[in-house]
Design goal:
Bound molecules: adenosine-5'-triphosphate
Low-confidence stretches: 263-272
Radius of gyration: 18 Å
Number of helices: 11
Distance between the termini: 50 Å
Structural class: alpha/beta
Helix content: 25-40%
Number of strands: 10
CATH topology: Rossmann fold
Largest sheet: 6 strands, mixed
CATH class: Alpha Beta
Shape: globular
Order of helices and strands: EEEHEEHEHHHHHEHEHEEHH
Mean pLDDT: 87
Strand content: 15-25%
C-alpha cells in the first residue's frame, strides 16, 4: 500500500492537453502529466513527437488548443497578461542555444533572470537590488563561473554559456524548471557535466524539472523519471530502469532507436531557432 505522506506534492498538473497548430498539425493529444515537487523528469521521443510543444504550452509560449495546465493549483491556460507574467516567474526556462544577450556580461545576463520582478525601467537602468547581485554571485560561484562575472557572454564556451543560462533561470527562484534540449549544442563530456549540474541544483533546491532531451543515455543516467512521447501521445512513463527495448520501440517505433542511445553530436547551427525573443516574452518585455 502506498502511504500518502510519502508522495511528493504536485507542482504541475497537465490534463487532457491538446495543441493543434494553424497548419493543422496535431502536436499534442490528450496529454495527462503530473509532476511532483522536486521531481526531475526527462521527456524523450522522436523528432516531431511534441516535446518542445509540451514544454512551451506549460509556460504559454505556445497557447494550448484545449485542456488544463495547473502550476501549484493555478490554471495557467486562461491567465491574463499580468497574471501570466507572475506565473511565468515561477517557471525558469533553459534553452538549447542558451539565449544569452551576447554583448552583456555574465553578471548582467544572470541578473536578467530578475527582470520579471524588478520592473522594466529599473532594469533598463541596471538598478538591481544588492540582494539580487549577491544572489547572482553565489550562484555563479556554485556553477564555477565566479571569476567570469565581468566577461561578455560572447567570450564564453558553450558549456560556460549554458551555466549562465542555468543561473539566469534560477535567479527567478522558480518552482519548476523547463529545460529544452540543454545539451544539443555541447560535446559529450560537457553534456554530462551540464546534466549533472542541473540534477544537483534541483536536488539541492527541491526543484522540479522537465527536461526535453534527445539523448536517451543521458536521460537514463540523470533523470529520476522518463516520459516518452510519440506523435503527441504519452506512450511511456516510468523510472529509467524500466525503459527497456519494448518501451523504446513503443516510443521510437521502427526507427533504429539504438542510435538514440549515444550522443547524437552537435545540432547544426541552422537547426537552432533563436530563443532570445522567447526570453524577452517570458520576461514580459515583448
Ligand atoms: N510553430 C509551428 N507551426 C506549425 N507546426 C508546428 C510548429 N511547431 C511545431 N509544429 C509541429 O508540431 C509537431 C510537434 O513539434 P515539436 O517541435 O513540438 O516536436 P519535438 O518533439 O520537440 O521535435 P524535435 O525533437 O525535432 O524538436 C510537429 O509535427 C511539428 O511539425
Amino acid at each position: 500500500m502506498i502511504e500518502l505522506g510519502t508522495l511528493p506534492s504536485t507542482v504541475l498538473e497537465v490534463a487532457r492537453l491538446n495543441k493543434r497548430y494553424p497548419t493543422g498539425d496535431l502536436a499534442l493529444r490528450d496529454v495527462d502529466l503530473r509532476i511532483g515537487r522536486g521531481e526531475v523528469v526527462a521527456l524523450i521521443g522522436p523528432s516531431g513527437a511534441g516535446k518542445s510543444t509540451l514544454i512551451r504550452c506549460v509556460n504559454r509560449l505556445v497557447q494550448p488548443t484545449s485542456g488544463s495546465v495547473r502550476l501549484d493549483g493555478t490554471e495557467v491556460t486562461d491567465l491574463g497578461s499580468a497574471s501570466l507574467r507572475r506565473a511565468r516567474r515561477r517557471m525558469g526556462m533553459i534553452f538549447q542555444e542558451y539565449a544569452l544577450i551576447e554583448r552583456l556580461t555574465v553578471m548582467e545576463n544572470a541578473l536578467s533572470g530578475r527582470l520579471g520582478y524588478v520592473g522594466f525601467w529599473r532594469s533598463w537602468f541596471r538598478r538591481f537590488p544588492t540582494t539580487d547581485v549577491a544572489e547572482a554571485f553565489t550562484l555563479l560561484i556554485r556553477v564555477g563561473l565566479s571569476d567570469m562575472a565581468n566577461k561578455r557572454a560572447d567570450a564564453l564556451s558553450g558549456g560556460q554559456r549554458q551555466r549562465v543560462g542555468i543561473v539566469r533561470a534560477l535567479m527567478q527562484r522558480p518552482e519548476l524548471l523547463l529545460v529544452d534540449e540543454p545539451t544539443a549544442s555541447l560535446d559529450p563530456k560537457t553534456s554530462r557535466q551540464i546534466m549533472r549540474l542541473i540534477l544537483e541544483l534541483c536536488t539541492e533546491r527541491g526543484l522540479a524539472a522537465i527536461i526535453n532531451i534527445h539523448d536517451v543515455a543521458l536521460a537514463r543516467q540523470f533523470a529520476q523519471r522518463i516520459v516518452g512521447l510519440r506523435a503527441g501521445v504519452i506512450v511511456f512513463d516510468g523510472p529509467p530502469n524500466s525503459l527497456d527495448a519494448a518501451a523504446l520501440t513503443a516510443i521510437y517505433g521502427d526507427e533504429d532507436w539504438t542510435a538514440t542511445l549515444g550522443h547524437g553530436g552537435k545540432v547544426a547551427e541552422d537547426e537552432h531557432r533563436s530563443a532570445v525573443p522567447e526570453v524577452e516574452r517570458l520576461a514580459g518585455l515583448a
